[in-house]
Amino acid sequence: MQNSLSISFHAPHTLLLLVLLPWVRGAVGQEGFCSVPPSVVAESSSKPLYWKVTNPTLSPANLQDLPGFTRSVYRWDHALITPESHVFSPLPDWVNTLGAYLITPAMGAHFSMYLAKMQENSRSGLPPKDVERFVFVVDGGVTFSNGSIIDHKLPVDSYAYLPPNVEHLLKCDTTATILIFERRYMSLENHCPEQIIGSTEKQPLLETPGEVFELRKLLPTSAPYDFNIHIMDFQPGEYLNVKEVHYNQHGLLLLEGQGIYRLGDSWYPVQAGDVIWMAPFVPQWYAALGKTPSRYLLYKDVNRNPL
User: Fold this and answer.
1) pLDDT per position as a tens digit, 99-134
2) Which helix (H) or strand (E) holds 135?
């Protein structure tokens, strides 16, 4: 007897199904909805941390070789920039380094977010005057120097925050990929940010009342800092309770896992390596899918009056 499937939906659920259907076709199997094949799970456990960011795959698999296909989307209040759309070119004032700008003021953001691929014997340049910088290592490792006697090694999952107009240098003798945020610092009288070097694993888990995800903040929450970087972890099936609408902007890199992100009236399947820009007041929501945990890094402007 031929197998058949009969499902009835109310209107809102029908809309979500239509959005997810192209992605789901390749994900439904004997293991269940949006499951990850055992071979993929085993492969993930044997790879370095965040390896999917620099070795992405398209989803679903049957569209990987379709000419002209991309999941990237740009709207006036949000954007999804996926790895197959990255365009790398030499970074000004950097040595042996290619960069891909993913979020910039040209799309309406008040910050820049870009990936820098450092090659053998590469060196960083400085940001423009009065611009602060945040660096997060996603692959390989770099050496950080600020003119002091001691240089700092920054492996994967470590980071550095540089206040505006601070001399510093990032060096790489082999190869590395780093994520960088830059924005023009909004100064406050009698408040001066300090240089910070740290790693995600050393940051404490913070309380998230009404939510189930795990949260770490990589920068202090005090007034000298006009933005913060959040690391958010979701187990499969977990989702945001609040359907957020707020004045803050976001820049997001999905570091691990996969899920569904709502931006405005659109629902986007996302996976490790995807970047999202969220303008002020765009409705936003996330749910983790599959069988592996999700982790994303999130930029958020804070501690400043929106006027």
Assistant:
1) 999 999 999 999 999 999 999 999 999 999 999 999
2) strand 131-145
Q: Shortest CA distance to 33 belongs to which of 21, 20, 24, 42?
A: 24
Domain ranges for the chain: 34-301
Cβ-based burial of 131 (10 A; exposed 0-12, middle 13-18, buried ≥19): middle
pLDDT tens column, 197-235: 999 999 999 999 999 999 999 999 999 999 999 999 999
Q: Is CATH 2.60.120.10 the right assignment for the domain spanning 34-301? A: yes
Alpha helices by DSSP H, the chain: 11-24, 38-45, 51-54
CA angle 6, 7, 12 (to 5 degrees): 160
CA torsion angle 58 60 62 67 (round to 10): -50
How far apart are the C-alpha atoms of 33 and 9, rounded to whole Å?
A: 17
Determine the Cα–Cα distance for residues 112 and 110; give it in Å rounded to an integer: 7
What pTM value is reported for the model? 0.85
Measure the CA–CA gap between 137 and 185, rounded to whole angstroms. Answer: 22
Residue 301, beta-bridge partner list: 227
**Structure tokens, 172:** 């790489």
Angle formed at CA 115 by CA 137 and CA 20, multiple of 5 degrees:
100
